[in-house]
Amino acid sequence: ARLEGLISASEVVVFMKGTRDSPKCGFSSKMMALLEEHRVPFTTFDILSDEEVRQGLKVYSTWPTYPQVYAHGKLVGGLDVLNELAAEGELLSELKVSPEDGTPALEPVTLVSKIKRALQAERVEVEDLSDGCGSKFSVLVVTEKFEGMPLIERQRAVHESIKAEMASIHALTLKCKTPAQAAAAGL
């Protein structure tokens, strides 16, 4: 009963060696880095502080190693499992949590104004395609400045105009057109 209480203490509980601020093994340290990178809200329990929990949880979970991550009272796995979920872009959905508000969500209006200003664009449209696993945007930029510019240079110019925001964008699809190209494409 005590283990079930600890496992369900919060949405995501990490049973680990050490604490969030002071992990006591490499695997626990890597787990903290992974969860913090993905802004997963979680609490920890230091198994080194309680031998009964340390041994009991191995039996309860039939999982022999630590760290162990539980979400909503169910074992999700250890570091290898969570690394794989993160690599597949499924970490937050598998844990059934939303990212912590450590960084504000990027607003499309911010991108529109910065791109318009930097490129004197007559038209900028930003569609937010974010799905809970990072910021994803589709952007259309129409400006005379693109006249005679190779496509790669057009995209570089857009990237440069939102350089500060690029660090928090996970995927960006760009359409960079001159007014004549936009009209011909029916955009």
UniProtKB/TrEMBL annotation:
Gene3D superfamilies assigned to the protein according to its UniProt record, in alphabetical order: BolA-like, Glutaredoxin
One Gene Ontology molecular-function label: metal ion binding
Segments forming domain Glutaredoxin: 12-76
Record key words, sorted: Iron, Iron-sulfur, Metal-binding
Pfam families the record matches: BolA, Glutaredoxin
PANTHER family per record: GLUTAREDOXIN FAMILY MEMBER (PTHR10293), GLUTAREDOXIN-3 (PTHR10293:SF73)
GO biological process, alphabetically ordered: intracellular iron ion homeostasis
Protein name: Glutaredoxin domain-containing protein
UniProt xrefs under CDD domains: GRX_PICOT_like
